[in-house]
From TrEMBL:
Subcellular location: Cell inner membrane
Identification of the protein by name: Ion-translocating oxidoreductase complex subunit D
Major subcellular site: membrane
Broad enzyme group: translocase
Pfam family, one: NQR2_RnfD_RnfE
Record has Oxidoreductase as a keyword: no
Oligomer and partners: The complex is composed of six subunits: RnfA, RnfB, RnfC, RnfD, RnfE and RnfG.
Membrane-spanning residues: 20-39, 45-64, 71-89, 204-226, 233-251, 263-280, 292-310, 316-335
EC number: 7.-.-.-
Modified sites of kind FMN phosphoryl threonine: T177
Keywords noted in UniProt: Cell inner membrane, Cell membrane, Electron transport, Flavoprotein, FMN, Membrane, Phosphoprotein, Translocase, Transmembrane, Transmembrane helix, Transport
Gene name, Swiss-Prot/TrEMBL: rsxD
Length: 352
């Protein structure tokens, strides 16, 4: 199959790659701040380890390929990949897990394909899936959110660093995420009874204590990027819309077989991070306007299917990678026609 090239018009005067990446880093700050507030120092420790690993791996790969190291490091793409991975991985994860995830993202998902602009899959999600499949136990343990701690404080920096260095965690400071708890904890109960018995839900305003604030923070960062024109609204809105539609269609009022409420799916897990910071990656997503709508809607549906009927409680990473697979085919059938050419004539010319 010969894929169709993007037709004119093309945008001129766009922000440089480095400037775009700087805005993405800035927009991640609210989410990072709330993650640190709710789950402690682990997120900042993840960021430090992932950033150092990403820069070292990027520099080593560029040097081996004979490319100017300083020039490419200044585009901030390695730093963005590191931060996206750092906020997606559990705080207080063992240091080696963060290193493996980041190295896989930079070396396998990015540099093997030729570097920035050539990777068919989102690097951060590749790194995340590598460690999710390889180390499910370490990936399923998140610190207890602040609102459920008896002394209303997270572990200090010293114990947090020790937990990351030894990989042993901190006794009494970890538990399941809202999506994980809901998926494996209902066990024949009505949703209302289950929620009432679980402080993680009963003390929450929307969808899971701590997690709702994290998702609202990433939503705020995403709105900032939309306002700055870093990406268009089509893919995020389509993803959130299709996920919401699936949640409404299959919501049965809260029986023991319920797949979860609309609010649970929108404000738990990595929903807002995925919608505004992952699927909007311009390299691995669809490029046409209609294509972005289809791409986003496909990912939203896949997230719901994986969460409700799959083996993983969240599913954002797998849904994004499946969407990356489909992006070239979506573009093949949704790119606009060149001005003055009929669809049939254009197809005939490109098949020659």
């Amino acid at each position: 199959m010969v894929f169709k090239p993007v037709s004119s018009p093309h945008r001129h005067g766009a922000l440089s790659t480095a400037r775009v990446m700087q805005w993405v880093l800035l927009a991640l700050i609210p989410g990072i701040a709330v993650l640190t507030w709710q789950f402690g120092w682990g997120t900042l420790i993840n960021i430090a380890i992932a950033t150092v690993t990403a820069l070292l791996c990027e520099a080593a790969a560029l040097s081996l390929r004979g490319r100017p190291v300083g020039f490419y490091l200044r585009d901030y793409s390695a730093a963005v990949t590191a931060l996206l991975l750092a906020v997606a991985l559990p705080p207080l994860a063992p240091w080696w897990l963060v290193v493996i995830a980041t190295a896989s993202a930079v070396l396998i998902a990015k540099q093997v394909y030729g570097g920035l602009g050539y990777n068919p899959f989102n690097p951060a999600m590749v790194g995340y899936v590598v460690v999710l499949i390889s180390f499910p136990l370490q990936m399923s343990s998140w610190p207890t959110p602040l609102g459920l701690l008896s002394d209303a404080s997270q572990p200090s920096l010293g114990p947090s660093l020790a937990a990351v260095a030894t990989g042993t965690g901190i006794d009494g400071w970890s538990g399941a995420t809202p999506l994980d708890l809901f998926k494996h904890g209902v066990n024949g109960q009505l949703v209302s009874d289950f929620v009432a018995a679980q402080p993680l839900f009963s003390q929450a305003l929307l969808a899971g204590l701590g997690w709702e604030w994290v998702n609202l923070a990433f939503l705020a960062g995403g709105v900032l990027l939309l306002a700055k024109g870093i990406f268009t609204w089509h893919a995020p809105v389509a993803m959130l819309g299709s996920l919401a539609l699936m949640a409404l269609l299959f919501w049965d009022g809260g029986s023991s077989h319920s797949g979860g409420s609309l609010l649970l799916h929108l404000f738990s897990g990595a929903t807002m991070l995925g919608a505004f910071f992952i699927i909007t990656d311009p390299v691995s997503s669809a490029v046409s306007t209609r294509g972005r709508l289809i791409y986003g809607a496909l990912i939203g549906v896949l997230i719901y299917l994986i969460r409700v009927w799959g083996n993983y409680p969240d599913g954002v990473a797998f849904a994004v990678l499946l969407g990356n697979f489909a992006a070239p085919f979506i573009d093949n059938y949704t790119l606009p026609r060149s001005y003055g050419h009929s669809r049939a004539r254009r197809a005939t010319e490109q098949s020659k």
